[in-house]
Amino acid sequence: MASGVPALLLLLTGAGTPHRLLHEEAVAPVPGVVAESGRPTSATAPVPRFEPTETVESIVSAGNRFRIHFTRQGPNAVPLADAEGNGVPDFAERVGRTYERVATFYAGLGFRLPPDDATSPGDNGGDGRFDVYLVDFARRGDGAFRLETCLEGNGTTRCTGYMLQENDFAGYGYPSEAQAVETLASHEFFHAVQAAYRPDLGGIASEGTAVWATERFQPALDDLEGFTHYYLESPDRSLLTDPSGPGVGFNYGAGLFFQFAGEHFGDALLVALLEESVRQPEARWSLLLDTCLRRDFASSFEAAFVRFSAWNLGTGARATPGHGYARAEGYAPLATTATALPASLDSLRIAAASSRSFEVAGGASFVSATFEPEPGTDPAALSLLVTAVTDTAVQLVRQSDRSEVLRAQVPAHDATRVVVSVVDGRPQQGLGSYGRLCIAATGQDAACAPVLPPPADAGSDAGTGGDTDAGLPEEPEPPRPPVEEGGCQSAGGPLSGALIALLLVQGLRIRRRPSALPR
Predict the structure, then answer these.
(1) What confidence tens digit (pLDDT) does each residue in 222-250 have?
(2) pLDDT tens for residues 406-428?
(3) Are 413 and 364 in contact (CB under 8 A)?
């Protein structure tokens, strides 16, 4: 959870993508620890907390699921405007209404809501309703879920707690009070949803799915957009390793992966991930996701990660209708390494669940790339993507087939640049994959990456760069699996992993029409 800094909007120098700073203090949830020190109404509670001189009041939300705690005086005072004249500050009522909307929305997607806290040790806020405390974060953050107790599974599942939320958002830079409350309520309450299953999925899955949840609740909120730079500036960092210190923003940027999962496979995959976390309480989130993808979506973590890497080629200025994310133009651009042709890069390392991308000049008839893993490196989870791009669009993606040496080439005479990406889709940690990457263009003497004669369909490929026709090929929807209670069987998916791989091998052709991938 986040750094001790305010959630202000900053702008990237020379770019229009907003940077949002992090919401919470990066503290791993430990059941029972919060209960020992007390809720923010206690003088022994950690900050932020109410002052002993403040009178704390509470109201129940209209839907009867939440109790909102606030004060009218002191540093934790909420704005006192009361347009309805009912004696209750409008801000406190807005918070209650928003949490009700968020809870109703998540329940509608199929997620569990937090159990009531009537049996929680010590102070439970007065009843079994979920408690939200409006306190002053003093710009050191703007919200946090506090895990308090777990009700079953030896203290590892069906957990609950309460919420802390900024009392007035003064000086935080949100476009409006409504957007500030919606952003915090949707993000932080999703941590409570996670705890209703299992609270220890790790920072990447915890923050990443919470960022996805805010985007899913209200796409007009810009949290995901503001966090994408944390991932897209460092795609060579593994999604399997939770960072710490200054790098903790990567956890939030990982929301992009879960956004991909939701857009590509549907909400049911994210529900299934949390359901499966209860069935396998010791398993890492990536292996849980792999289980669900294999069982119910005819796919795998590896295949999904390769597709995710292909989507990331079309973000920012290169957002292309029909290729990838629905709102990719608002995301940061993918970081690549500029490389001269021909190129030969020895002992290149790629971590599990990561990619490395190199950008070379276009304009040649073809650009070819090879990646030869070093002896002892398992090539099974490795893929090579060679992509023709312009400054404003993705034209064509080619993926290597399965062999000991990965190889792909792309027609590039209409391309401004060509991006070569080496992708490692393994769902579990281990030593990095090492190998030699070679890139060359037509007419260059590069024995390790020769440009081969074009295939029989090269005539259609050769015109890709100037083709104004449309998006990725339509993918038929396979039969959905039977629905069972809980776990991966609760999921259904629109896209087959085998079909995805086949389409990538054959080339993900952009024909520029409004149609896009099924979402």
Answers:
(1) 999 999 999 999 999 999 999 887 788 99
(2) 999 999 999 999 999 999 999 99
(3) yes
**CATH number of residue 435's parent domain:** 2.60.120.380
Final residue belonging to a domain, choices 164, 179, 200: 200
- Ranges of residues in the chain whose predicted pLDDT is under 70: 1-21, 25-36, 153-155, 455-519
Q: Residue 163's domain spans which residues?
A: 31-200
- The answer to whether the peptide bond before residue 342 is cis (omega within 30 degrees of 0) is yes
Strands 406-411 and 157-166: unpaired
- One-letter amino acid identity for 449? A
User: Which stretch of DSSP H or E encloses residue 279?
Assistant: helix 267-279
Q: Where are the beta strands (DSSP E) in 390-446?
A: 394-399, 406-411, 417-424, 433-441
Q: Assign 278 to helix, strand or coil.
A: helix
Is 390:316 a contact under the CB 8 Å cutoff?
Answer: no
Q: What is the pTM of this model?
A: 0.85
Residue pair 510/320 in contact by the 8 Å Cβ criterion: yes
Query: What is the number of other CB atoms lying within 10 angstroms of the CB of residue 430?
Result: 12
**3-state DSSP call for residue 38?**
coil
The C-alpha angle 518, 476, 511, rounded to 5 degrees, equals 60
Which string of DSSP letters, residue by residue, matches 464-476? GGG--S-SSPP-P
Which of 173, 200, 227 is the C-terminal boundary of a domain? 200
DSSP lists the bridge partners of residue 310 as none
130-135 and 157-166 strand pairing = parallel
Count of domains observed in the chain: 2
Rounded Cα distance between 130 and 114, Å, is 8
CA 389, 395, 399, 400 dihedral sign is negative
Q: Encode pLDDT of 30-57 as tens digits.
A: 555 455 578 999 999 999 999 999 999 9
